[in-house]
Inverse folding.
């Protein structure tokens, strides 16, 4: 083995070992790297108790209720299996919509209602012009109608 | 006729070759940038949800891709330089770092500008954003370490170690949106599935990606020429250039 080949082998081995170490470390920190908990996890008591944490999911269709004369909003976050009621006072981001992704930070109160002090919209990976979105919606509606008939 | 590639491992002949390539890539970069920005601002339609704000992707996505890709290229050159003691490879690594850092900064900055109106926040500590910030620190660390060591050969070796260790961060950035739940959305364009983006938007973005490639090549070659001159200033061929008034 020439010295430079030996050097290359040492470098390759070093990088591989480091990569392996990184995988182990990331695995160990798996739970700390979670940005938000799903409603199912919260109901299964996997979320931290008495501490502030984040819940993520979709804003349940038809659940958004605004209180009059204030910026307080009530809505439910769902992962289609479970749902959690959220109360939030403040300005909602532009992308906050029913049926779209959302991440709320706050605490669970004793009644099981999530008091949020920050609500962030989570955008999905779809980019299209409004006409295409409309066409997709029409198609989905047509499909639903044909299923019910 | 076979080209003798090893010839261009010598800084003197690569200096001449790079000099011929720079104008070519500069013109391509300017041309593609003009077309890309035109498509991005005038041809591509408004997004159904984000309105005009989505147009950030024409800068943000190419910048983010380049930031990761350039790091891998930089680490490869640094690694080759470390293993085979080839001076030019290490000079290439040094030349790539500032451009990579610029693209990383651009990705973070534009992302932040988009995040405020869309997500409702400038910054969150989710896995994607944090790992991209670490990438910026890796670039800065590489550059400052090299700048702190006077002997260029020793600086190359020390820098190569940082560059190689930091490579681990690249798959973490790329897969962070799949491995963990993050606020950052998943990939709209990936190797193994159809893009979830309207085709005009995609075209505009891809032209901008090509433009960033051409820009990077042009700037990096230009920079490596300067590094070659600096490091080889004691040699006969540089003295020759100086005498001819070519510098």
């Amino acid at each position: 083995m020439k010295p430079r080949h030996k050097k290359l082998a040492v470098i390759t081995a070093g990088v591989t070992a480091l990569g392996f170490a990184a995988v182990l470390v990331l695995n160990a920190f798996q739970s700390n790297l979670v940005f938000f908990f799903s409603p199912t996890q919260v109901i299964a008591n996997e979320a931290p108790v008495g501490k502030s944490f984040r819940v993520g999911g979709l804003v349940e269709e038809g659940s958004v209720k605004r209180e009059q004369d204030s910026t307080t909003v009530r809505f439910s976050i769902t992962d289609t299996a479970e749902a959690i009621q959220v109360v939030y006072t403040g300005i909602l981001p532009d992308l906050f919509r029913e049926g779209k992704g959302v991440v709320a930070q706050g605490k669970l109160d004793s009644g099981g209602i999530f008091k949020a002090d920050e609500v962030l919209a989570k955008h999905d990976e779809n980019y299209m012009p409004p006409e295409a979105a409309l066409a997709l919606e029409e198609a989905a509606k047509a499909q639903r109608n044909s299923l019910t008939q | 006729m076979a080209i003798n590639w090893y010839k261009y491992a010598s800084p003197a002949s690569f200096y001449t070759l790079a000099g011929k390539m720079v104008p070519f890539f500069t013109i391509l970069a300017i041309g593609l940038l003009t077309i890309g920005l035109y498509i991005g601002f005038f041809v591509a339609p408004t997004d159904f949800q984000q309105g005009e704000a989505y147009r950030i992707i024409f800068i943000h996505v190419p910048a983010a891709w380049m930031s990761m890709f350039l790091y891998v290229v930089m680490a490869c050159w640094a690694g080759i330089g470390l293993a085979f003691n080839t001076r030019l490879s290490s000079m290439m690594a040094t030349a790539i770092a500032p451009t990579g850092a610029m693209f990383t900064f651009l990705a973070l900055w534009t992302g932040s500008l988009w995040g405020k109106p869309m997500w409702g926040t400038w910054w969150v500590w989710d896995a994607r954003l944090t790992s991209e910030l670490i990438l910026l620190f890796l670039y800065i660390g590489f550059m400052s370490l090299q700048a702190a060591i006077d002997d260029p050969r020793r600086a190359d070796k020390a820098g190569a170690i940082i560059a190689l260790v930091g490579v681990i961060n690249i798959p973490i950035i790329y897969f962070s949106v799949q491995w963990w739940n993050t606020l950052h959305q998943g990939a709209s364009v990936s190797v193994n599935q159809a893009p979830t983006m309207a085709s005009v938007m995609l075209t505009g973005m891809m032209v901008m990606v090509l433009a960033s490639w051409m820009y990077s090549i042009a700037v990096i070659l230009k920079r490596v020429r300067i590094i070659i001159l600096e490091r080889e200033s004691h040699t006969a061929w540089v003295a020759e250039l100086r005498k001819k008034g070519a510098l």
